[in-house]
């Protein structure tokens, strides 16, 4: 260890040590980029960094005034509008822990998250007020204070039944002193992942990890000062891959996007000059398939990070001619979002034909700069041969890995066994070390960028009186990438039809999680009785 | 503090916590950028990242084999050639602390540094062998093992009297396991600064600070992947502003530059495609004043960081037309190099006339992204009015501030009083917060990018039998920026001439520190007997 012969007087002090936190980026930007445009939403909301900082300060003050103490959880049910982004700074600036909840979830799951996360307060967009109220009504234990975030321009006016976000801000002190972390390991955010078992797990982020994620992403996304970023990735997914926390670091402008449509995206590029966006391959499909009338011309190149599933080669070919450069990235909620990227080796690959280029772009690639080691290992945690054929599990070590699962030390211990985070994703590694996902060990179905736990859907189907056994796998889908397809073994003598079973599932699950196709048959099993999902996936590929 | 209601199982572990160190950058680059060109020196030395990593590994192994244990100091007396850069990774990779010594220093000072730093081993370029041997001969206590680094192409072949660097590497194990820091606060480098008192102080860097310096510099220098960096800033100055540690992070190429001449710089830009370089204003002057025959044409823009003194407006105007974009940065050895930058606000300043642009570019600007707070304060450590007139001291807080001075806890405590590093530099702050240095409180003279302590020079002059009192200030100089000018009050009845006194000083000081002009007069003093250096500076400005 590199301690010198005499380290007397060489300790940490206020002058030479500051806990790493993304809060520092906005504090600096409020001085360095004070008059630059920080955020845009529609015609009305155009704020500078000085104003953005003031709004976050007011939010922190207001939350503090409502009794939010350091370590308390503040939840949100908001799409990608300014309040959701401001919560990323305002909540931690009063010491709170931000819990952005997926607005597409069902009442039962939202109630579970609120109870498990112990949210003291929830900011709710008027569109999702019914969901929030139903969840609060259903949950056990103390219920969170509800603050309403109306969006009149989008057709969601205030209900009149709750204090509104803007009223709360108006009454707060713009000179409130931010509560900065004293230890960079303090908790910053709580994100529930669908996981593989019935109930979602609460992934805890710390300030250090988010800070380093922002520093590494600047490098990986080849960003210089003042990018214009369109928020397509929902902020309730890994806090939008931490991009909101990154923008003040580089004096960027965030362009909010409430509803993800091709015209909205093309307009933002053409009118606001968007330079960067991230999104699932379904977003790329949307752009490629947009009719001529919905497209807009622009003469700069837009850098796109895509993740969730490899984009189809046909999509890649088409979108590049439209002015987008696509980079495949890979990560999980447990890793703050993307931690690997398919770094493009122009000198080797620029001259390749389109199909070969697309095949490479479908790789998940190599570690981001802030990560220490990401590789593929066999069951004994040995490096697999890098031959493009041998399979193993992607294993992740580095500073942008979660603290662990909230109130679930057993799951945390299991996830971190042997000093790496076990991703659960099965991959090969090419000769140059680039990883490529071959299978998903955890049976996650990715539909329109949303993770669906097959186990959760199976659980619901199994609740139906007629169902003996259910196995849910991904079925390829032109629009959504994948949709859930259920194989069901019925109890003897029963004959429900598929539509009835789908309706049953929809009654208990968020709409996107319900199976889109059902096949009745005896399920193929191994000698030990384990369902052979591999066989079912092959069958699902064949369906219409 | 942001600790949640239940933090059970959310501790640091190998999966989610790695001490920050620039060593990680080269480890990652050896995989991610394995076949990319990492370093160029002359015709012969062109190595990839895989090879660069292997050479550093061999160096670490060899040092370890020679008994260098973690925490031991390894010194160098080498110009900017590959061995000096490899030492930046190879020394810490065996747990050692790197002490790059200024090759322009005198024997006495080098001996002092070797003794005070307790170097166990020193790598010495053949050109500086005489200096190193004389220093070793003169020093008290255990002497370092000397390894010679010949440079045949540059006319400095091996003496034959010491083991050579390449022989040492050839005998080492390329699979040696790097010794990574277990605590990011461990010491990484030791850099002696001229300071203000007679003897230099040993500034200690830690791994965390250097890592964050590299991350912040990518943002500030607006770098994307694969820059081509020319090493003009000596690596014995703040480790070349940490740029060697940064390059592997972005897969850049380092082009070594042993002797700084206009043809060498233009050739590197034209032949190797250099995109970035750093240097004192004297380097800019050299380029601007180079005869047409020494210039080369190139059609890209070269980004230049300059520091030490503001470049003259005339220089700035000329160099921009040659294809260079200059950014003024500011920092000290105590801050790992640059920590403020004059971020260019194009939307406000692009349209200004050249003199107005040059005036702005002469500002030291605002904090780098990895710094927490850099501002100007009065003697009571209160923020000064930002009016461009009031003066105060630049105060610095952040993660790229030294651990402290080696074996000098009193000086460390004084430097960090009140939770900020006291820079000693006097500045004004403009309305937008941009700082501009107005005076140097510590009387440092900056000559050709080298710091000269006026107190040190005064001390030598005072050793002369005829001298009663000596005060040294900066005199403006077209070539060197500043040179030392001495005002001397003689003892009654003595009449030495200026040439003799300069020769006397040259015998005791490095050549660049000796005064270039001497004025004999009674020194102006305050009522309390303090020399009015302010008056002397005015006089020095008037001299021919």
UniProtKB/TrEMBL annotation, chains A, B:
EC number assigned by the record: 6.2.1.3
Pfam families assigned: AMP-binding, AMP-binding_C
Keyword annotations from UniProtKB, A to Z: Fatty acid metabolism, Ligase, Lipid metabolism
AMP-binding enzyme C-terminal domain sequence ranges: 456-530
Coiled-coil spans in chain: none
InterPro entries to which the protein is assigned, alphabetical: AMP-bd_C, AMP-bd_C_sf, AMP-binding_CS, AMP-dep_synth/lig_dom, ANL_N_sf
Record-level Gene Ontology MF annotations: long-chain fatty acid-CoA ligase activity
Boundaries of every AMP-dependent synthetase/ligase domain copy: 27-406
Family: Belongs to the ATP-dependent AMP-binding enzyme family.
NCBIfam families: PRK08162.1
Protein name: Long-chain-fatty-acid--CoA ligase
Upper taxonomic lineage: Bacteria, Pseudomonadati, Pseudomonadota, Alphaproteobacteria, Rhodobacterales
């Amino acid at each position: 260890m590199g301690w010198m012969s005499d380290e007397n007087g060489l300790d940490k002090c206020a002058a030479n040590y500051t806990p790493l936190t993304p809060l520092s980026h906005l504090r600096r930007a409020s001085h360095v980029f004070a008059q630059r445009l920080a955020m845009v939403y529609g015609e009305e909301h155009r704020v500078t960094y000085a104003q953005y900082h003031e709004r976050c300060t007011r939010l922190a003050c207001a939350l503090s005034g409502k009794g939010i103490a350091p370590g308390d959880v503040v939840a949100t049910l908001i799409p990608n509008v300014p309040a959701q982004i401001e919560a990323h700074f305002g909540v931690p600036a009063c010491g709170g822990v931000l819990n952005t909840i997926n607005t597409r979830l069902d009442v039962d799951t939202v109630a579970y998250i609120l109870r498990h996360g112990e949210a003291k307060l929830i900011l709710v967009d008027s569109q999702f007020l019914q969901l929030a109220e139903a969840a609060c009504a259903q949950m056990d234990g103390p219920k969170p204070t509800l603050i309403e975030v109306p969006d009149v321009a989008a057709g969601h006016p205030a209900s009149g039944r709750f204090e509104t976000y803007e009223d709360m801000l108006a009454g707060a002190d713009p000179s409130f002193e931010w509560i900065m972390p004293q230890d960079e390991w303090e908790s910053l955010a709580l994100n529930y992942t669908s996981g593989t078992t019935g109930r979602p797990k609460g992934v805890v982020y710390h300030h250090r990890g988010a800070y380093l994620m922002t520093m590494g992403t600047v490098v990986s996304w080849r960003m210089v000062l003042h990018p214009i970023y369109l928020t397509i990735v929902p902020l309730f997914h890994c806090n939008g891959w931490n991009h909101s926390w990154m923008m003040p670091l580089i004096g960027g402008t965030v362009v909010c996007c409430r509803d993800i449509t091709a015209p909205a995206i093309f307009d933002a590029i053409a009118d606001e000059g968007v330079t960067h966006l991230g999104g699932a391959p379904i977003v790329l499909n949307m752009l490629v398939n947009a009719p001529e009338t919905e497209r807009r011309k622009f003469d700069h190149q837009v850098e796109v990070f895509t993740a969730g599933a490899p984009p189809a080669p046909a999509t890649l070919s088409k979108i590049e001619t439209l002015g987008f450069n696509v980079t495949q990235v890979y990560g999980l909620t447990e890793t703050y979002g993307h931690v690997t990227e398919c770094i493009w080796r122009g000198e080797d690959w620029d001259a390749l034909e389109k199909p070969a280029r697309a095949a490479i772009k479908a790789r998940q690639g190599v570690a981001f700069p802030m990560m220490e080691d990401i590789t593929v290992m066999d069951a004994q945690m040995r490096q697999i041969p890098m031959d493009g054929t041998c399979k193993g599990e992607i294993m992740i070590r580095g500073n942008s890995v979660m603290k662990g699962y909230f109130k679930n030390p057993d799951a945390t211990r299991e996830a971190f066994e042997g000093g790496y985070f076990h991703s659960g994703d099965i991959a090969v590694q090419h000769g140059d070390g680039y990883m490529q996902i071959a299978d998903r060990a955890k049976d996650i179905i990715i539909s329109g960028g949303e993770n669906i736990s097959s186990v959760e859907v199976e659980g619901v189907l199994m609740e139906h009186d007629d169902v003996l056994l259910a196995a849910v796998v991904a079925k390829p889908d032109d629009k959504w990438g994948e949709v859930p397809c259920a194989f069901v073994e019925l109890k003897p003598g029963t004959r429900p039809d598929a539509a009835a079973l789908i309706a049953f599932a929809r009654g208990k699950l968020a709409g996107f999680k319900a199976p889109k196709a059902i096949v009745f048959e005896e399920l193929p099993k191994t000698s030990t009785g384990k369902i052979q999902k591999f066989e079912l996936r092959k069958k699902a590929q064949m369906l219409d």
